[in-house]
Amino acid sequence: MPGVISIRLTHVSQLFNMLDPFPFRERDLAPEAEEYIAGWAEEMPARAPLAIVVHLPEAEAAGPDAQGLPEAIAHFFDYRRHETARELAQLFRVGRLSLVIGLGVLAVCLVAAQLVGHVLGEGTFAGILEESLVIVGWVANWRPIEIFLYEWWPLARRRDLFARLAAARVEVRAEGAAGSADARGVPS
């Protein structure tokens, strides 16, 4: 059974960003609408298919704009999926470059620490300098470690969420007596 996300609107235009200059089917969703839909989708089981049901007054639901909603919503979330996948690829590029730089700095610092030990011999100052160089070498790898252990997960989850939303079944339902509601389905 699909996870259903319901949105109650009085006008189709409430769903879209009115400042977007593109034709209707290619327009961006309003940030509030995207946040609402994505927020509810995150609450659904990860493997469950999604369905988005847009409730509109009868006259509005019969219009051409309402008929284009399934395509517009799928196009928008597919674009967001592609955009997030690009961000993830860019993050991995930065991570790889940071790793190469970090490993280079670590190698130089380890060699320098060994040289300090041989040149200065035993002593407090030599020990502090050796340990400081080793620490600097590992700190240079902090960013790539952070990227490869933690930062990519949220982007991958978001990309997968947008893919699920792009594949969601979108249904427009006509309602006889329409109450006023905003893009989140909250009566006003």
Structure described in brief:
Helices cover 61% and strands 11% of the residues. It has helices at 31-43, 58-61, 64-67, 69-120, 124-139, 142-166; strands spanning 3-8, 50-57, 169-175. Helix 1 links the parallel strand 1 and strand 2.
Textual characterization of the structure:
The chain has about 190 residues and is mainly alpha-helical. The chain folds into 2 domains: about 5-80 and about 165-175, no CATH class; about 85-155. It has 6 helices and 3 strands, in the order βαβαααααβ. It has helices at about 30-45, 60, 65, 70-120, 125-140, 140-165, and strands spanning about 5-10, 50-55, 170-175. The protein has a 3-stranded parallel sheet with strand order 1-2-3. Helix 4 packs antiparallel against helix 5. The longest helix is centred in the middle third of the chain and has 52 residues, at about 70-120. Keywords: Membrane, Transmembrane, Transmembrane helix.
Radius of gyration: 26 Å
Uncertain spans: 178-188
- Dominant shape: rod-shaped
Overall structural domain count: 2
Order of helices and strands: EHEHHHHHE
| Helix proportion | 55-70%
Across the major sheet, the strand order is 1-2-3
Overall average pLDDT: 88
Structural descriptors:
11% strand; mainly alpha; three-stranded parallel sheet; disordered C terminus; transmembrane; 2 domains
Ordered list of secondary-structure elements with their pairings:
Layout: E1 3-8, H1 31-43, E2 50-57, H2 58-61, H3 64-67, H4 69-120, H5 124-139, H6 142-166, E3 169-175
Parallel strand pairs: 1-2, 2-3
Helix pairs in contact: 4-5, 4-6
